[in-house]
């Protein structure tokens, strides 16, 4: 049995946490091997050890049977190991060529030979079917092309073993299919692939074997042919997982949020939202499905007042929001769970109690004539922490120290406690473990059942289909179609998200 | 020991203290290398700091503008801004206080507050400019503030020459009704220049602590300093708070100028170079861990060093620039607190074994 | 006095004044492009001026007119080493880079005067005997019209500075070293994954900035000031930083900006000879460069231009 990569009993520690606890991974030559685990299970850490970015405390690595010490990415490269990162490692204002040759530049009398580099890249690109424009700047090209640049980086350095870290996070279903084709071509050309993912469907469709990691510990390796998604999920989480959240049918009432012909420009002055119409009714969850970058972010920013609109109207129960300040908008009855909790949702250096009071600190009883009443603030925080089961040593703990899931729970507590008419949830479960995800889904449905309007924006199609009563597909700044989740599927949604039209006629609007 | 390192409060005190000690040790090394006697050097230094009533009086007097400069820097820093323009704000504050002190004839009970307020206002306006440019145009406040320092230096000098010149590189003296000087205090401290400004300074420290820690506005300012995005999301007007923070900081700096104009000197000189107080304020803020009490203590320490430097020079020949070097090293040590934490952490591990 | 005669006064004066700024601004580019803020350029210039004058004074008896040139080289080396303090504090110890730079300025100011008092027993040095003089380039200065304006009455160091700006442009944009330097300042983690040693690159960037600022200070001291005291380098370093920002961290941009500032500075000196300008109150001319800098920064430069990772210490494993 020819193993091309063996990681034996790897132990990697960080201050206060064991990220990899004696994990063993063995990859055969020419296979696509999945590394499956929840967010935070330790998959990326393990691969960073393989790639030389981290040094393990204990354990052995063998490449093609030889024991090696991978002290930095250069050594990994020399051994033929290449990594396609989840968050692209690309210098924005460099060209495609410059990014690929960085550190390995072909030169002629001291000057970089850009022409030769571009030529070599063009050849590689043709050989593997990875189309790129060698002279384009990264900041100007699509996400799909950026990923191809990441792949070319590894091939340019002669990688035989490619590690793909969560490659499909930002891709449409069609782009995912293309990527799978690319991976199969790479295998044909003699490469071996390690695929880090938490997406069970992808594993089933393209991988040969799968190693599961749970909370830093290796749980086993299975042949993909001999298993199924439910079994994999159970191994990943350690118990039975319910994918579909139980919910009653919705009984929506009057419209709470009405958006008409909304036009919003992004930071570069380009139209991100182009004459968009949408309404959300009390007692329903409307899910917005779309590929990242089609205007969802700008739409939410416009509704919540974080971005000025160009034209159109946003009304909350007959009150025009677009002319109001962020604070007034919040006060008129909107709750917002932001998509980037560290950037927008929390002041990490404040205590969790201060963060829970972040939207209401200036009102009575927390504040009187400008003087803050910290006692009141922490009293409220304590209540909410208990009610929402936020795991924290105390309400005086710095927000930074809490786990992602608990941070998110605190944010939800803060927003929901104000009983907003409209609750906006943007990527509410990004980066969270299954337990937190279940909790948040339950809470969103609860709010909907209480009669609130919920607007959900998510890049996880499963989540959108699972939770929404109506799905609005956004493409190039417009809502192109509204579908009933019970009557659609991922393929159809994927098509709509990429700008196509539904084949079937009819459907709920 | 390890547990201590984890306790943030303790570290906040330990780091400045350790840095100060390290700085003084480094100073001793430099004295040795320069062929001077460090023991004698430091002895005359401490003597000059609080060896006599006059020394203590002068130390407290030197502390007043330093503490206010430190408060100015710390206030801005707590809200995410680097006010390196304290020097210029101090100069315009000084000029404003002297001008009001000279140009009007009013009972002291009105004259002093008026002159003091003028100084604060001048400083606030001078700091408003970099604050505004940062909020509106995202221009880095450091470079603008540095430019404003030079503009203040040349402009105040020119204004004095044109409107307030009394000859001998000085402006006219202020009227007695505007003066903070006190014969009572002078008597108490053997004819030092100690004046009532120390009361204003302590009041300012209390005000800073109160605003930042007890008010809703302070909550907002600190939030903006930590995370502008989350603050915006929380409905806080980031731009307005940046400007407000710089203006308040500038007001404190202006007050520092008033200390000199109304207390120490009773006039303003036509400067060709900076006083250095503004930059020392940065050291004071750092050493005082940006806290009100810390700043008062740190400014006492630095005020003492400055007061005693001539004494040290006189007794041992050590150039007074040594103080500047020691201060610079202390800043390096505080700023590199990472290293101190690491060393203390190591010491802890070694101890436990 | 006609326009050409005015030019013949102010352009050479501008070139004369701009040279120290050009050297220092180019130095700043190396440091900041690698991601390290260097406010300490002012202190480094000061130390370069100090080293330059002291070296010249010590060598002028044996080397005569060569002394200032050798002194400049010595200043370059000394300041490269001196800048290590900022490098260690900012890069390895992850101190706040602005604070470290300010501390470096204090240190340079205090140390240089301390040493002067120790060596010379007074607060300022003697004047150097041999300075870097203004020259007129044989041949080129005889060209009608532009000869008098561009090639007369300017120290050679100014031309060296201009040539250096183009050389730096080549290095930063055309060589592997330059590509890697820029990558470290834009996206150090990406550079790390490509096997580039981020920490080493940043040390090199800071040391080159120290070397060039040292040269800038020494050039100022040996061609303009001719002695050293506390007020010799009063803000030149900060002006150079402003020129770097104004020039958008690009060598040729910084060159242009530095020349612009050199022009503004020289006007306050030569202005007395020029009609119109001589009527402007001198204080306005003195503060002109500073006001213009503020206007320029506000009007021309957006925050988006700075290297993306500027001012952020690099930590491996931070995701």
Automatic annotation (TrEMBL), chain A:
- Report if keyword Transport is assigned: yes
Which species is this UniProt entry from? Answer: Priestia aryabhattai
- Specify where it is mainly localized: membrane
Topological type in the membrane: Peripheral membrane protein
Q: How is this protein named in the record?
A: Simple sugar transport system ATP-binding protein
PROSITE patterns the record matches? ABC_TRANSPORTER_1, ABC_TRANSPORTER_2
Q: What is one term from the GO cellular component aspect held by the record?
A: plasma membrane
Q: Which SMART domains does the entry mention?
A: AAA (SM00382)
* One Pfam family, short name: ABC_tran
Residue intervals of the ABC transporter domain: 5-240, 257-501
Q: What CDD domains has UniProt attached to this entry? A: ABC_Carb_Monos_I, ABC_Carb_Monos_II
Automatic annotation (TrEMBL), chain B:
What species was this sequence derived from?
A: Priestia megaterium
Q: Which GO terms describe its cellular component?
A: plasma membrane
Provide the transmembrane region boundaries.
12-36, 56-77, 84-104, 110-130, 142-164, 194-212, 282-302, 322-344
Which InterPro entries has this protein been placed in? Answer: ABC_transp_permease (IPR001851)
Give GO terms: molecular function aspect only: transmembrane transporter activity
Localization (cell) = Cell membrane
Report the membrane topology from the UniProt record.
Multi-pass membrane protein
Q: Which domain of life is it from?
A: Bacteria
Full protein name: Branched-chain amino acid ABC transporter permease
Q: Which UniProt keywords apply?
A: Cell membrane, Membrane, Transmembrane, Transmembrane helix
Question: Its principal location?
Answer: membrane
From TrEMBL, chain C:
For this UniProt entry, the molecular function terms from Gene Ontology, in alphabetical order, are:
transmembrane transporter activity
The Gene Ontology CC terms held by the record are: plasma membrane
Give coiled-coil spans as residue ranges: none
**UniProt membrane topology term:** Multi-pass membrane protein
Instruction: Name the Pfam families on file.
Output: BPD_transp_2
Q: Where in the cell is it found?
A: Cell membrane
Protein name per the record:
Simple sugar transport system permease protein
The organism named in the record is Priestia aryabhattai
């Amino acid at each position: 049995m020819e193993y091309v990569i063996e990681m034996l009993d790897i132990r990697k520690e960080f201050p206060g946490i064991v990220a990899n606890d004696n994990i063993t991974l063995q990859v055969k030559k020419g296979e696509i091997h999945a590394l499956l685990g929840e967010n935070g299970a330790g998959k990326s850490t393990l691969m960073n050890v393989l790639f030389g970015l981290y040094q393990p405390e204990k354990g052995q690595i063998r490449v093609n049977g030889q024991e090696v010490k991978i002290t930095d990415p250069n050594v990994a490269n020399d051994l033929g190991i290449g990594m396609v990162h989840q968050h692209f490692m690309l210098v924005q204002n460099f060209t495609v060529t410059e990014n690929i040759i960085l550190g390995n530049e072909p030169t002629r009398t001291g000057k970089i030979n850009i022409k030769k580099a571009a030529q070599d890249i063009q050849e590689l690109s043709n050989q593997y079917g990875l189309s790129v424009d060698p002279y384009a700047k990264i900041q100007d090209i699509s996400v799909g092309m950026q990923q191809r640049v990441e792949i070319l980086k590894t091939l340019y350095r002669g990688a035989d073993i490619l590690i793909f870290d969560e490659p499909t996070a930002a891709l449409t279903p069609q782009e995912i299919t293309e990527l799978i084709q690319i991976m199969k071509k790479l295998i044909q050309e003699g490469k071996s692939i390690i695929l880090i993912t938490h997406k069970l469907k992808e594993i089933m469709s393209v991988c040969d074997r799968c190693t599961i990691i749970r909370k830093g510990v290796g749980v086993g390796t299975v042949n993909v042919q001999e298993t199924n998604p439910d079994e994999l999920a159970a191994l990943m989480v350690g118990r039975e997982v319910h994918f579909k959240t139980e919910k009653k049918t919705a009984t929506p009432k009057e419209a709470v949020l009405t958006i008409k012909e909304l036009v919003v420009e992004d930071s570069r002055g380009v139209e991100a939202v182009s004459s968009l119409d949408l309404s959300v009714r009390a007692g329903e969850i409307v899910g917005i499905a779309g590929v990242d970058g089609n205007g969802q972010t700008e739409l939410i920013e416009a509704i919540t007042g974080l971005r000025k609109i160009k034209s159109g109207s946003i009304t909350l129960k007959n009150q025009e929001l677009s002319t109001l300040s962020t604070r007034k908008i919040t006060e008129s009855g909107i709750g917002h769970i932001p998509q980037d909790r560290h950037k927008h949702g929390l002041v990490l250096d404040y205590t969790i109690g201060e963060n829970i009071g972040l939207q209401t600190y200036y009102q009575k009883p927390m504040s009187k004539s400008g003087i803050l009443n910290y006692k009141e603030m922490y009293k409220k925080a304590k209540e909410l922490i208990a009610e929402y089961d936020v795991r924290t040593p105390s309400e005086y703990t710095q927000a930074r120290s809490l786990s992602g899931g608990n941070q998110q729970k605190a944010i939800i507590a803060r927003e929901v406690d104000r009983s907003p008419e409209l609750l906006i949830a943007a990527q509410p479960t990004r980066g969270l473990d299954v337990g937190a995800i279940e909790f948040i889904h339950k809470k969103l449905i609860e709010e909907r059942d209480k009669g609130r309007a919920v607007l959900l924006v998510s890049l996880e199609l499963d989540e959108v289909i699972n939770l929404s009563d109506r799905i609005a597909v956004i493409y190039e700044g417009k809502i192109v179609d509204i579908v009933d989740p019970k009557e659609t599927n991922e393929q159809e949604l994927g098509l709509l998200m990429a700008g196509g039209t539904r084949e079937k006629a009819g459907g709920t609007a | 020991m390890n547990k201590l390192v984890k306790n943030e409060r303790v570290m906040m005190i330990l780091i400045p203290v350790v840095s100060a000690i390290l700085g003084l040790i480094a100073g001793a090394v430099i004295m040795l290398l320069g062929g001077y006697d460090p023991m004698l050097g430091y002895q005359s230094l401490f003597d000059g700091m609080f060896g006599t009533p006059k020394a203590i009086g002068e130390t407290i007097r030197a502390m007043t503008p330093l503490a206010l400069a430190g408060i100015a820097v710390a206030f801005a820093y707590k809200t995410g801004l680097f006010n390196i323009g304290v020097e210029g704000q101090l100069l315009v504050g000084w000029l404003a206080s002297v001008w009001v002190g000279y140009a009007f004839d009013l009972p002291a009970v009105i004259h002093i507050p008026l002159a003091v307020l003028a100084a604060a206002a001048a400083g606030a306006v001078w700091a408003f400019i970099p604050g505004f440019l940062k909020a509106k145009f995202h221009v880095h406040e450091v470079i603008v503030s540095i430019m404003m320092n030079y503009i203040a230096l040349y402009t105040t000098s020119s204004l004095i020459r044109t409107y307030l010149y009394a000859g001998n590189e000085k402006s006219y003296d202020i009227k007695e009704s505007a003066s903070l000087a006190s014969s009572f205090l002078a008597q108490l401290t053997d004819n030092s220049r100690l004046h009532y400004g120390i009361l204003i300074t302590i009041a300012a420290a209390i005000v800073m602590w109160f605003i930042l820690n007890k008010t809703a506005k302070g909550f907002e300012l600190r939030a903006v300093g930590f995370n502008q995005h989350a603050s915006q999301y929380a409905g806080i007007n980031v731009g307005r708070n940046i400007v407000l923070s710089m203006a308040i900081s500038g007001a404190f700096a202006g007050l520092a100028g008033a200390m000199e104009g109304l207390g120490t000197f009773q006039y303003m000189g036509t400067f060709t170079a900076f006083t250095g107080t503004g930059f020392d304020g940065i050291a004071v803020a750092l050493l005082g861990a940006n806290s009100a009490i810390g700043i008062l203590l740190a400014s006492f320490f630095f005020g003492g060093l400055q007061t005693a430097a001539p004494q040290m020079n006189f007794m041992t020949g050590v150039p007074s620039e040594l103080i500047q070097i020691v201060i610079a090293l202390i800043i390096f040590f505080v700023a590199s607190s990472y290293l101190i934490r690491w060393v203390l952490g190591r010491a802890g591990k070694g101890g436990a074994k | 006095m006609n326009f050409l005669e005015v030019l013949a006064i102010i352009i050479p004066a501008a070139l004369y004044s701009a040279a120290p700024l050009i050297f220092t601004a180019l130095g700043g580019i190396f440091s900041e492009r690698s991601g390290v803020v260097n406010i300490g350029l002012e202190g480094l210039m000061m130390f370069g001026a100090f080293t330059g004058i002291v070296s010249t004074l010590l060598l002028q008896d044996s080397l005569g007119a060569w002394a200032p040139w050798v002194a400049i080289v010595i200043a370059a080396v000394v300041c490269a080493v001196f800048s290590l303090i900022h490098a260690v504090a900012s890069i390895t110890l992850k101190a706040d880079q602005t604070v470290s730079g300010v501390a470096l300025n204090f240190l340079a100011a205090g140390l240089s005067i301390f040493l002067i008092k120790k060596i010379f027993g007074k607060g300022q040095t003697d004047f150097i005997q041999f300075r870097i003089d203004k020259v007129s380039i044989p041949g080129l200065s005889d060209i009608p019209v532009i000869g008098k304006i561009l090639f007369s009455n300017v120290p050679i160091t100014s031309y060296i500075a201009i040539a250096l700006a183009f050389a730096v442009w080549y290095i930063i944009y055309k060589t592997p070293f330059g590509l890697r330097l820029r990558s470290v300042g834009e996206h150090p983690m990406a550079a790390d994954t490509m096997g580039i040693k981020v920490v080493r690159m940043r040390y090199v960037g800071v040391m080159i900035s120290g070397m060039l600022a040292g040269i800038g200070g020494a050039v100022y001291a040996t061609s303009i000031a001719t002695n050293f005291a506390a007020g010799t380098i009063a803000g030149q370093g900060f002006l150079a930083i402003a020129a770097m920002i104004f020039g958008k961290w690009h060598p040729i941009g910084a060159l242009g900006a530095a020349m612009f500032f050199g022009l503004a500075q020289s006007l306050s000196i030569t202005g007395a000879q020029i009609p119109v300008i001589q009527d402007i109150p001198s204080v306005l001319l003195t503060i002109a460069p500073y006001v213009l800098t503020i206007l320029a920064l506000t009007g021309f430069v957006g925050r988006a231009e700075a290297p993306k990772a500027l001012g952020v210490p690099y930590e491996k494993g931070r995701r």
